[in-house]
């Protein structure tokens, strides 16, 4: 048995049964070991950003890590953007990065690089395996670190540690530390603050607190004590839809966000952080709440958020039978017709969304209305890129589909963002994944036009247009998708879009709709 076999065995013993991979020469012994373990599902991504983004989507839907397999420093570097998103989403992930044999490193071969230095900013934990005997303890430590609390771990596997003989103990389950309980002093402090400022308290829920059962408790507190319920701007995962409590998402634009939070005197954080502006803008604040707003943390990432909400409800004297305000009937709105628009797409998808679907939203500016409408849609899970790094949508949908076979995945995708990781469509075709990709084809980086205005530039000249627009030539998403093995069609009217969406939802397998707006 060699070190690569031991690494596989430790992963499988701890139910890590999916490996998203883009390997190279240094990882061939690990590839051979994976070949001897047919229970491990190996999923090839044609670009490392697809690999790490898919592992993020898988983790968000299962709560458990997948493994990734990346080739030395450059391969890791190609995956860093979606590792950044995963770290911001607090997704458990185990990145296995191959490296030269330890004795080869002093020769400074072309692929030699500072892997630890590359990995550290986008990882919560990094370790280099010291040799074959270190494979088992290092892999067990990586698994433990990925879940206590959940986060991105990176394990560097030198080639000689992979091929060397390893007489390891039979791997077993790694013992995990249970999440720490919330402190009752914090619960009592927050309960007193809520009682003292009725109607002027906000609560931000994130992570486990954004699941349907925890949202119900947050909704009971909201209803009984006049607390306003919010989500962060970028949502790692939230359970939405009819019959569920629907927090209001804090807007991305600074002016809209500060206006929404202007009358909040007390802000309670449950699994999240204080909201801040994405960027600094001339003459605008970085904090979104007033400077005199009292910001209190009920429970942080890694704590038992559900139990924390229960403790706060009990401290406030609210009965578990307390009714909540939930979304019911869909708003009475006419069915759009004629030329296709962003709002028409959002309305159509929300109305037609299958029960228990998974929505991966990277439409950026184009699908902003969908989130509000999704409160009235069939019950579903909703996810976004959480680190602001674009190119996460297609991979996120890919990983979610592998995590949840039998559930339809809808990817709302901006055309510019989609081009960062378009290779993920090939993985969807190869794995026969049930993903419907809707590309908002406005042929521009629309959000950047808005950002130019936000920094005070109102007149955009030819040079700026050439950097912000995606025309000349226009992207042909139908051809791109078909080239990746995914069936696709184009819609430029509401009627055509509805017909294509109905067809895509009626059968399994990947399908792409280029929605020209």
Automatic annotation (TrEMBL):
Family recorded in the similarity comment: Belongs to the TPP enzyme family.
This protein's UniProt keywords: Thiamine pyrophosphate
Domain Thiamine pyrophosphate enzyme TPP-binding: residue ranges: 375-514
Family annotation (InterPro entries): THDP-binding, Thiamin_PyroP_enz_TPP-bd_dom, TPP_enz, TPP_enzyme_TPP-bd
Pfam family name, one: TPP_enzyme_N
SUPFAM superfamilies in the record: Thiamin diphosphate-binding fold (THDP-binding) (SSF52518)
Organism name: Mesorhizobium salmacidum
Full protein name: Acetolactate synthase large subunit
Residue span(s) of domain Thiamine pyrophosphate enzyme N-terminal TPP-binding: 1-106
